[in-house]
Amino acid sequence: MLKTKSKQKPKKSRQEINEESRELKRKRKHKGLPSGSRFNNTDNNKNNNTQKVVKDPRIGSKTPIALVVDTNTNTTKVVKQPKPKKTVLSPQQELEQLENDPKLDMLLDLVEQNGKLTKEQQTYLDSRLNRIDELMQELGYTDDDFEDLDDGKEDIVSLLKRS
């Protein structure tokens, strides 16, 4: 079997080859996106019109700012409310307040019933009893002054001091 070339391609002339190569070069040159497509986005603008327009967060406030200070404008100063000052109680008033303290009464009842106190309760009780002692010394009261009133009952403060 002999191979015969039944179809032979006609040879192209040099001029035809040059024209084809120029045509291919032109196609390759226009292969990518057009220049400036990063910022122009003509295709995206068409799509954005149909969608909701998103406001750019980089753009600041549009409220006008006065560049010159007007002395005629009324400026309202914000008045700070002063903190309520703690009223200074006299030692007698403070002592009465401590004696009428319901939390202190509850803790003293627990102690009388031999109940156990938490650390917080114990510190609260100790601080209040110490303050009562200080106020009584400041006012000049002694334990002898209150023995007549108790009719033989011992003072709870003195009981706690002993234990």
Automatic annotation (TrEMBL):
Q: What does this protein do?
A: A GTPase-activating protein (GAP) that modifies Der/EngA GTPase function. May play a role in ribosome biogenesis.
Low complexity bias spans: 40-52
Q: Which UniProt keywords apply?
A: GTPase activation, Ribosome biogenesis
Extract the InterPro entries matched here: YihI (IPR007336)
Specify residue ranges for compositional bias: Basic residues: 1-12
Q: Which family does it belong to?
A: Belongs to the YihI family.
Its quaternary structure?
Interacts with Der.
Give the record's GO biological process terms.
ribosome biogenesis
Name by which UniProt lists this protein: Der GTPase-activating protein YihI
Gene Ontology MF terms in the entry = GTPase activator activity
Output compositional bias ranges, type Basic and acidic residues: 13-23
Region labeled Disordered — which residues? 1-61, 77-101
